[in-house]
Amino acid sequence: SDIGSQKERVVTEEEWLQKWEMGNIGFHKEHGHPLLQKYLDVLLNGRTGLRIFFPLCGKAVEMKWLADMGHSVVGVEVSELAVKEFFSEHSLPYCEEPVPEISGAKMFQSTSGNISLYCCSIYDLSSSIVGKFDGVWDRGALVAVNPCDRQRYASLMINLVEKNSSYLLVTVSYDPNKHKGPPFYVPESEIRSLFG
Ligand code: SAH
User: 117 and 57 in contact (C-beta within 8 Å)?
Assistant: First the structure.
């Protein structure tokens, strides 16, 4: 489990924006992720009306699923194109407004009010801006974060969750010398040290 070859790799925000522009988004799952269906009970734990956070959300269709179940969904995504595609592909009317605390950021909210997507870097967020969450769906998020930013990402996520929250994390396991990532290989030992 030598992750040496990926440790120094950096994917810039500009490169992510380009992936969206080019439609180079092989990570997007049109029919959603089977693991969310499988572990939905773990995420919800019998609770209703939760606040669920989608870090690095892309246009994940699972946001629509959870909103349709009556939960309130908040996502963050650097690509405005991704955010707009999400709303248009689900035929959801939305409004957009600036985020006073974050220069250049915009918040896109479904007219029904239960889906709010922040278009900015996740590192611009804090619990004073977005509040705290009861649940997190982390798929293509920790594994998409640059290895040098993992500690910062994990500390932020820990700050954004309530005490009794559930955090579903999807990772991928493979030989990191054979692919450069993302998705990056994050060994379980590292996940334990990041999240405690
Ligand atoms: N979670 C989504 C998308 C995974 S790909 C899914 O399951 O489909 C990772 C996404 O993170 C990309 O859409 C990319 O544009 C976005 N991203 C990368 N760095 C980011 C950052 N610092 N802040 C917010 N979004 C970011």
Answer: yes
In testing the pocket of ligand 1, which one of 16, 81, 139, 157 has its CB within 8 Å of the most ligand atoms?
A: 16
The Å distance, Cα 78 to ligand 1 centre, comes to 7
Q: Going from the first residue of the chain to its last (196 residues), give the mean pLDDT of each consecutive group of 10, the final group possibly shorter.
A: 80 98 98 98 97 99 98 98 98 98 98 98 98 98 98 98 97 93 96 95
Total structural domains within the chain: 1
Ligand 1: residue whose CA is nearest its atom 19: 13
* Domain annotation covers residue 132: yes
Q: Which two tokens stand for residue 26?
A: 């092989």
Domain with 88 in it: what CATH number? 3.40.50.150
